């Protein structure tokens, strides 16, 4: 009778044990899975990282960089300092009405050639050269009250060439501004040489600056050999190029003032206590008001045997419109003056083309000092 309950108790313990064993098995399996996962996951991460690295490398090799390289602009030529005037179908071709062999009339404000007579032909510019001399000297001078001592060497060489002179003496201390007026008004080669030596150390070095300015202005057919305009086969220009040089000079207030002055007295010096009274070679031949409706305000004359009589001038109408006229290879000191009147007359219609009473002057009466 006692054995039956004992048997029943054993079965109860076995069920609990089985449950415990099941839980132990489950825990064991979970533990094993966790351990395996922990062991295998670094490998998976490594493989994943390796795959990502390969993908990144492949992308770098196959795709262009997203950052754009900065573009470099090609070097450009510096802008020209002057505008070359244009010829068109309206440009008047001048004939025998103009006595000078070469002539041009330019609308300064619109950069158009209004009338011309072989305006692109090679000419010897004589003292119209001094327009370039003035502007180069001005652009390279800081103090216009600086002094330059005129030398016997400079004067002796120029007198030997019968060059036009302002009248400075050897040993005279000339201010730079006085030499500017001495170069422009009486066309003094003593003044231009003094300016050249002061500015560049020698006339040869100064001429190099002049030819550099030729390039900057984009002139088509101009080359200088000296600062005064004395004749040299390799010293040449064209009427159009001279018009451009004058146009450029007018953009500088001091240069414009100098070439527009009727008379000027230099500073008192030991050699000239009262100064030197300088008269403009162009206004010696005109007042500037001869052509109704326009006023000639300034310019530069020139003369050598080879260049003939030359004149570059500018004029303005009452409404402020500006024009430039250049003539070369004229006969007689008044021919370029009357030719200028005729050229400006094509604008106003107030001065006729044709003969003038002074055209009958004899050549002997017309000759002047070279490079005047």
Describe the structure.
The chain has 372 residues and is of the alpha+beta class. The protein has a single domain, classed as DD-peptidase/beta-lactamase superfamily (Beta-lactamase), CATH 3.40.710. The chain is built from ten helices and ten strands. The protein has helices spanning 3-62, 130-139, 152-160, 176-184, 189-200, 203-217, 239-250, 253-258, 335-348, 363-366; strands at residues 92-93, 102-107, 112-117, 147-149, 173-175, 263-265, 277-279, 295-304, 308-316, 322-330. Strands 1-3-2-10-9-8 form a six-stranded mixed β-sheet, sandwiched between helices. Strand 9 (308-316) and strand 10 (322-330) form a beta hairpin. Helix 2 (130-139) runs parallel beside helix 5, helix 2 (130-139) packs parallel to helix 7 (239-250) and helix 4 packs across helix 5 (189-200). The radius of gyration is 45 Å and the shape is elongated. Mean pLDDT is 85; it is low at 1-12, 42-48, 55-63 and 357-367.
Looking at the overall shape, the CATH architecture is 3-Layer(aba) Sandwich
Strand order of the largest sheet: 1-3-2-10-9-8
* Helix-strand topology string: HEEEHEHEHHHHHEEEEEHH
Indicate the low-confidence ranges by residue numbers. 1-12, 42-48, 55-63, 357-367
Assign a percent range to the helix content: 40-55%
The whole-number mean of residue pLDDT values reads 85
Note the beta-strand portion.
5-15%
> Total strand count, please?
10
Task: Output the structural class.
Answer: alpha+beta
Tally of discrete structural domains: 1
The CATH homologous superfamily is called DD-peptidase/beta-lactamase superfamily
Main sheet record: 6 strands, mixed
From the 3D structure, determine the CATH topology: Beta-lactamase
């Amino acid at each position: 009778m006692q054995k039956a309950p004992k048997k029943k108790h054993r079965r109860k313990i076995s069920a609990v044990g089985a449950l415990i064993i099941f839980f132990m098995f489950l825990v064991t399996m979970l533990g094993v899975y966790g351990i395996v996962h922990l062991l295998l996951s670094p490998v998976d991460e490594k493989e994943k990282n390796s795959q990502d690295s390969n993908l990144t490398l492949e992308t770098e090799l196959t795709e262009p960089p997203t950052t754009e390289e900065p573009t470099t602009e090609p070097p450009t030529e510096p802008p020209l300092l002057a505008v070359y005037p244009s010829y068109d179908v309206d440009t008047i071709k001048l004939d025998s009405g103009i006595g000078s062999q070469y002539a041009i009339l330019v609308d300064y404000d619109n950069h158009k050639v209004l009338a011309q007579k072989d305006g692109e032909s090679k000419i010897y510019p004589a003292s119209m050269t001094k327009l370039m001399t003035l502007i180069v000297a001005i652009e390279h001078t800081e103090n216009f009250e600086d002094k330059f001592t005129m030398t016997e060497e400079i004067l002796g060489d120029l007198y030997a060439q019968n060059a036009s002179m302002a009248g400075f003496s050897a040993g005279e201390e000339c201010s730079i501004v006085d030499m500017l007026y001495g170069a422009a008004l009486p066309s003094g080669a003593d003044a231009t040489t003094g300016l050249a030596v002061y500015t560049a150390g020698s006339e040869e070095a100064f001429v190099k600056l002049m030819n550099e300015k030729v390039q900057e202005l984009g002139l088509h057919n101009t080359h200088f050999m000296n600062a005064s305009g004395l004749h040299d086969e390799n010293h040449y220009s064209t009427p159009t190029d001279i018009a451009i040089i004058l146009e450029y000079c007018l953009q500088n207030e001091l240069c414009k003032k100098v070439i527009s002055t009727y008379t000027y007295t230099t500073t008192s010096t030991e050699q000239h206590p009262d100064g030197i009274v300088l008269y403009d070679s162009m206004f010696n031949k005109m007042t500037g008001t001869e052509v109704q409706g326009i006023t000639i305000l300034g310019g530069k004359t020139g003369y050598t045997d080879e260049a003939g009589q030359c004149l570059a001038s500018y004029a303005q109408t009452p409404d402020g419109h500006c024009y430039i006229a250049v003539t070369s290879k004229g006969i007689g000191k008044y021919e370029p003056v009357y030719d200028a009147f005729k050229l400006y007359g094509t604008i106003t219609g107030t001065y006729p083309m044709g003969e003038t009473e002074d055209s009958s002057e004899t050549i002997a009466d017309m000759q002047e000092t070279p490079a005047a």
